[in-house]
Design goal:
heterodimer; A: alpha+beta; twelve-stranded mixed sheet; 12% strand; B: alpha/beta; elongated
Chain lengths: 732, 300
Amino acid sequence: MNIRTALAPFAIARRRLRSDPLFAAALFAATAATAFLFALVPQVFGRMAESSLEETVAGANALERNVSIAGAGAIDAAQGEDPVASVVVQGDEHERRFPARVQEVTGDGRASVETSRYTILTPPGEAAIPGTTRYLTLRFLEDADEHVKMVEGDAPTDAAGPVEPPLGDRTAVTGLEIALSQTTADQLSVELGDRLFIGPAADDPLVRNIPLTDRRLLAVDVVGILGAREGDDAWLRESRLGRAAIRDTETMRFIFGYGLVAGEEYNELLAGVDPLPLRYEWRFLVDPEAVAAQDTGELASEVRQLEAAFGQTTFGQRLGLGVRTGLGRILARHEDDRQAAQAVLAVGGIALLAVALSVLGVLAALAADRRSEAIALLRSRGGSLAQTLSVQAVEGLLVAVPAGALGYAAATLAAERSPELLPGLLVAGIVLAVGVLLAGAAVGTARRAVVPGRPDEALVPRLSPVRIALESLVVIAALAGAYLLRRRGLSSEGGFDPYLAAVPVLVGLAAAIVALRLYPLPLRALAWAAAPRRDLVPALGLRRLSRSPTLAVAPLLVVLLATSVGVLAATLAGTISVAQDRVAASDLTPLDTGTLDVFRVGIVVAGAYATVALALAPVLSARPRQRDLGYLRALGLSRRDALGLAAYELVPPVALALVLGVVLGLTLGYLVEPGLDLAALAAGEQAALRPAVAAPILLVAGLVLVTAAVTVLTGAAAARVNLSRVLRMGER
Amino acid sequence: MSQIVCDNLVKIYKVADLEVVALQGLDLVVDPGELIAIVGASGSGKSTLQNILGGLDTPTAGKADVAGFDLTSLNARDRTFYRRRVVGFVWQQTARNLFPYLTAGENVALPLVLDGMGGRDRRDYAHELLERVGLVDRAAHHPHELSGGEQQRVAIAIALANRPKVLLADEPTGELDSESAEDLFSTLRAVNEALGVTVIVLTHDPLVSTQVNRTIAIRDGRTSTETLRRAELDESGEHRIIAEEFALLDRVGRLQLPREYVEALELERRVRLALERDHVGVWPDRARQRRRDGEEADGE
C-alpha cells in the first residue's frame, strides 16, 4: 500500500462528515461529553485526595506532623556575638541530608537547645512546699522572639555571671537569666525577680550516668514574664513554655516547668551543665499544601529513607541523633483512605465508562447503518476491507480527536489543575474507542455489503458459534468475578483489581445478553395472544419487535445497563450517606464527602446516557420501520395506529429494560458491597447496605417520560412519512 | 480465448430455512470486446449472475472464469484486486453509482485513489474519462447537480477508471427517459469500440437487444435463448439488421425451447424427435394429443 492509498480514507471520511453534519454533530457532542466526564472525574478525585491529605496533615498535631532531628551532646559554641549559631548551622547540615521530596515539604529548621531536667532547690531557711517536687528545664528556642514577648520584666541575657553558692560552698555556680510564663511561674510558686538554685534531677536518664560529685548547681534569675504574641497561643502551648505539666501520685505532686533562656547565654549554658550533655532538637515544619502536591507514595518512601538515614530518635535520652516524625503514618493512613475511595469510585467509574462506550457503540452502529450504501459502493469500486473500515475509523477519529481535546481541555479548566496523565490516557482511550467502534460496527456491513439488497432486516439473525462462545465467556466471567469479589474484596495491595472492579459491568452485560436472547419468547407469546383481536396494531407491533435484529434493541441494552448503574450508584450513595450522617462532619475528609457527591452525579450521568440511548432507539430502526409503515399506511393504517405501533415497539422493551435495570442495580449493590470498604468513607462508621428508593424512582420516572416523548415523536414522524418516497425506497 | 466462461454455474441462497436456487447450471461464454445483453424477467437470476461476475458474490458450484480469474477460488485480497482492476459496474439507481458528497471528477478519480494512482496522473486520467463520456465540463458538479443521464454517464466513466476488462451494467437505463437511454447506449457502444472493453448489459427489457450485438435470455437460472444481431446488405443494396434467435444446447445436450414455441404447439411432458440430415425435428406427442381430444369429445 503506498502513501496515496493510505491517505485515501482521510479524503473520503472528510467529505462524508461534511455531507452528514447531523451525525457528525451527534458524535462530536457524545464524544466531547464523555471525554469531559472521564477527564474531569480523575482530576476531581485528585483534587479531593489532595485537599483530604492537606486537611489530614494540617489537622495532625505538630509533633506528629513535623520532622524533628533530636539528640543529646555538646555542640561547641560559635565564636562571635551569636554563640548558638553553631547549633543553627548544624540544623542546616542535617537538612541537606534529607531526601529531595522531604526537603520540598519541610521549611527551614528551628533549632532548640534544652538542658536535662533540674530540681528547684529550696534555699536554706525557707520552708519547702510539702509533698511537691518542682522541676525546671531550661530551653533555648530559635524562633522564640517571633512568637513570645515579655509582658513583665526583661528578656533574658548573658548578664547574670557567676553566682555565690547558697550553702557556703566556695565554688561559684553559673548564673543564667530566664523568662517564665505567668502560669508556669504560678505553678512553680516563683515570682519575677526570684533567684532559684537548681540541681540535676537524678531521675533524668542523662543525669543517671554522671557521678554525684560532677553534678553542678545552676543559679537562675527570673528576669521576665513571657506571653504569647497575638495568634501564637498554640505555639506557646506546643513549646511547653506556656504551662507546666503536673503529675500527681498518692503522696506526691511533681511539677515540670520550662524556662526560656537566650541564645547569647549558650556559652554559659554549656559551661554550667558540664559534664552533663544538652538536648538538641531541630524541628522542620511540614507544609500541608506542599505535602498535598506531592506523590504520596514517593513521599512516604522518602520519609522511610529519612528514618533509615538518621535512625530512630532516642528523644534525647542517649547521646547521638535520631529522627522523629509521624508523617509516614499520616501518609499511610491517607493512602488507605484514598485506596478505599478509589476502589469504590473505580467500580462506579468503570460501570459508567461501559455505559458511555455502549452509547458511542450505538452511534457507531448508526454510522454503519447510514453509510451502508456508501460502504457497498466503496467495496464494489475496489476498496479493500481494510480501506473501507479505515474510512469508518478515520471518520470517527476526525470527529473524536477534536471532541476529545475539547472535553479534556474543558475538564482541565473546570478542575483548575495542570494537565495530568491519567485523564489524558482515558480521553485518548475514548477517542481511539470511537474510531475502533465505528470501524467495528461496519465490519459486518463491509463484508456483507458486497451483496447489495439482501433483505437482512426480514431475517431473525442466527447466532454464530463464535458469538455464542463470546457471550458464554462474558456470563462465566461475570459469575466468577462476582464470586471472587464477594470472597476477596476489591482492594488489593497497591490499588484495586481491575477485573473485580469491572464485575458490575460484566454482570450487567451478562444480564443484558440473557435478556436479549430470551426477550423474543414472551413477546411472541404476547403477539400470539393478541392475534385474534380485531385491532391489528398490538399483534403487528409485537411481532415486528420480536423479529427486530439485535441492532434495533442495542439502545435498550444501554438503557438496561445505565439504569442498573444508576440504581447501583444510588444504593452506594445512600449507604455512604447514612454512615456519614452518624459521624461528626469534622471527621470526614474532602475525599469522603467528594466521593459521595461523585456517586450522586453518577446517577444523573447514567440517566443522561440512558436518555441518549432512548432517543437513538427509533433512529436505528427508522429505515425498516418507515418502509413497513409506508406499506401499512398505503393499506389504510391511520395516523393514530401508526402512533400505537410506535408505542408497541418501544414501550415493552423499555419497560423490560427499566425493570431489569432496577432489579440488576439492587442486586449489584448486594453483590459488590461486601467487597468494598465503604466504612473508610465514613471515618470507619459501618452502615448496612441501604437500597435506595427515591433516586431509582426519580430515574425511572424520568426515563419513562423520555420514552413517552420519544414514542410520540416517533409516531408523529411515522405518520408524516412521505408514502411515495418510502414505497419507492421499499422497491429497492 | 474467451473473456468470460461460466460452466454449469449454480448459486443457492439460504434464506432462513428456505433454499432458493438462483442459478441452476447456467452456461455462458463471452469473447473479449463483445457488447452483449443478458435479458431476463425479475427472479430469473440475472442479478445473481452479475454479482458473481462482478466478484461481489461466490457461486455455490460450477465454474466461473473472467479474464483468467477463477471466481470460485479467489481469496478476499484477490477478490478486491479483481473488483479494482478487472470489472467495472454501472447500476440502475443513479444514486447508487456515485458518492453524493464527491464531485463528478472526484467520483471518477476515487477508484484511482483506491488503487494508489498519483495526483496529476489521476486528475488527467479522470479528465480524459469524463471527456470520453462527454461530461468534462461537468467535472466540478456534484451528483445532485447532474441529470439522470449525466449521472449514468459519469458512472460509466467511474466504471472505466481502472481500465477494466469487463463492464457490467445492471439496468443502466431503468431510471432514464428514452432519449437519455439512447445517449447512454451510444456511450456504451463508443467505449466498447474504442477501448475494447467487454460490455455486459443486464436488463429485463427485451428491446435492449436492439442496442447490442448479442442478447442472451435467461430463465429460471439458466440461459435459454440467444439472439444474434448482424447488419447485412439486402437485394436493393441497403443495410438491414438481421436478428436470429438460437436455442442453447448445454454440455449434455439439453435444449430449452422458447416459451412461445412450446405454447404454440401445446408441447408438454414429451415430444417426438426426428433426426434429419441437417436438423432435428421436434413434434408434439400425437398419440397423447389424440387421446386427450377423444376424452374431450366423450365429455361433450
